[in-house]
Amino acid sequence: MTGTAGSVRERAPQSWEDRAVCAEVDPELFFPEHSGWAGALEAEVAKAICAECPVCGDCLATALADPTLYGVWGGTTRAERKQLRRRRRAGQRASRRAAHDEGGRS
């Protein structure tokens, strides 16, 4: 999804973004204006659109790689992506510890 409302990214020609369902709807749907339950309901509308998108995984990968993006990307909110990044880092640390422990045994 190309960013609006403050976050604009350059798109490569023939990118996954050209096939994104969000390119065919109002981009403001992906940038909830409210907080609390109202914002959560707005985000759910965007997530429902993402659920039908053939390039949702590409969108999510882009958003996970760029923590400055806000709004709904790849079916996740900025807060959800922050949690995913934390879990990913924790898993990587655990894997490194396990590999280190395994390598130290004879």
Description of the structure:
This protein starts with 35 loop residues before the first helix and ends with a helix. Helices cover 50% and strands 0% of the residues. 19% of the residues are buried. The protein has helices at residues 36-51, 56-65, 78-104. The protein has three helices and no strands. With 106 residues, it is mainly alpha-helical.
Note the main attributes of this structure.
mainly alpha; 106 residues
Q: Major sheet: size, sense and barrel closure? A: none
User: Would you report the number of β strands?
Assistant: 0
Q: What percentage of the residues does DSSP assign to strands (E)?
A: under 5%
Structural class, by secondary structure, is: mainly alpha
Approximate shape: globular
C-alpha Rg (nearest Å) = 17 Å
**Ends apart, CA distance between termini:** 51 Å
Helical residue percent band: 40-55%
Q: Sketch the topology as an H/E string, one letter per element.
A: HHH
So how many helices?
A: 3
Parts with pLDDT < 50 across at least 5 consecutive residues: none
The average pLDDT value, as a whole number, equals: 87
